[in-house]
Amino acid sequence: MNDDSVIPAAAQPPKERRRAGRSVLVVLVSLALLTAAATTTYFARRTDRGPAPSAADREPTPAAPPRPVVLTYEVQGKGRAIITYTDPAQKSNVVLPDQPLPWRIELPRQVVDFAQVNARRTSSESAPWTSRIVVDGAEVCSQTLDLYINTGCQYLPPSS
Questions:
Q1: Minimal CB count within 10 Å: which of 7, 31, 76, 114?
Q2: What is the per-residue pLDDT across 4-36, written as a single tens digit (0 to 9) for each?
Q3: Is the peptide bond before 102 cis (omega within 30 degrees of 0)?
C-alpha cells in the first residue's frame, strides 16, 4: 500500500455533518453555562436574605382579644314562634316556646364568639317574617321568608 493513500470520500463525514455536530456542541455548552449561571445567581440571592428565621419568628402573632359588643336579636312578623338564640354569656342556646311576634331581646355588652337566632312558626299565619342580628346598632344578618316555617340568622365576628 502506498503511504499517500487517500481515505475514500464515502468514509469521510461531509462538511455539513461536521458543522451540525459543532453547532450541537456549542448549544449544549451554552445551555450548561446558562444553567450554572442561573443556579449560582439563585443561591447567591437566597443567601443574601440573612439568617433563617427562628421558631419564635415563624409563630403567628396572637390575635387581639375580641371586643365586647351589644347584641340584639329580633324576629318580626305576625303570629307565634318557637325562638332559639345563643346567649354568649351562657355559652348555650336559650329556647323560648310559643312567643308572640314581633319579638326582640337586647343582651348586655359582652364578648361574642358566635351568635344565632332561629324561629319556627307555631301558628298558621302565612305573612312574611324576618329574623335579624344587630351588633352595636349595625345589622349583620337578616333573613325574610314568606312561606317557610323556619327562619334564622348566624353571625361569626371577624378575627382581629
A1: 7
A2: 555 555 555 566 556 666 777 776 666 666 666
A3: yes
**Domain count of the fold of the chain:** 2
If 0-12 CB within 10 Å is exposed, 13-18 middle and 19+ buried, where does residue 69 land?
A: buried
Least confident of 55-59, 110-114, 129-133, 154-158: 55-59
Whichever domain contains 108, its CATH number is 2.60.40.2880
* 5 within some domain: no
Q: What is the CA radius of gyration of the chain?
A: 39
Q: Which residue has the cell 349583620?
A: 140
Strand order in the sheet with 103-111: 103-111, 68-76, 129-135, 138-145
Whole-model pTM: value is 0.59
Q: What 3-state DSSP class applies to 61? A: coil
Short-list 32, 16, 132, CA closest to 72:
132
Rounded Cα distance, 89 and 46, in Å: 51
Which amino acid, 151?
A: T
Find out whether 73 and 141 touch, Cβ atoms under 8 Å. no
